[in-house]
Specification:
Number of domains: 1
Distance between the termini: 27 Å
Shape: globular
CATH class: Mainly Alpha
Number of strands: 3
Radius of gyration: 14 Å
Number of helices: 6
CATH architecture: Orthogonal Bundle
Largest sheet: 3 strands, antiparallel
Structural class: mainly alpha
Length: 119
């Protein structure tokens, strides 16, 4: 997952169910064409496609994109290495409870960071 120090650089994920590619681009600090490319490279990243092939990302997709971004840009992984790392973590994180717990931790870290800024 993202380190707490990296989360401070990115905006908090709003409590919406679906996000457009433009919104995800802003939330994750990645250009839309990069997101489309990552969809091809990372099988676990597959947004819902609706009218006119428009992409709608869910909250778990945004968290995954932030994780991919961290692996590639901050930890220096190659795309193949990041894919292997994510596949290894996916095998360890089979339960939905673990995923929910991880998302809650990220949200709490964001709240803590925003409270720290106010002081």
């Amino acid at each position: 997952m993202l380190e707490p120090s990296n989360n401070n650089q990115l905006p908090t994920i709003p409590g919406k169910r679906y996000f457009t590619i433009g919104e995800v681009s802003e939330l994750c600090g990645v250009k839309p064409h990069v997101l489309r490319y990552w969809e091809q490279e990372f099988p676990s990243l597959s947004p819902v496609k609706r009218r006119g092939n428009r992409r709608y990302y869910q909250r778990q997709d945004v968290v995954l994109i932030r994780q991919i971004r961290s692996l590639l840009y901050e930890e220096g992984f190659t795309i193949g290495g990041a894919r292997q790392r994510l596949e290894g973590e996916a095998k360890q994180e089979q339960t939905p409870y673990k995923q929910l717990l991880d998302q809650t931790i990220v949200e709490l870290e964001d709240v803590l960071a925003s409270l720290s800024k106010d002081d």
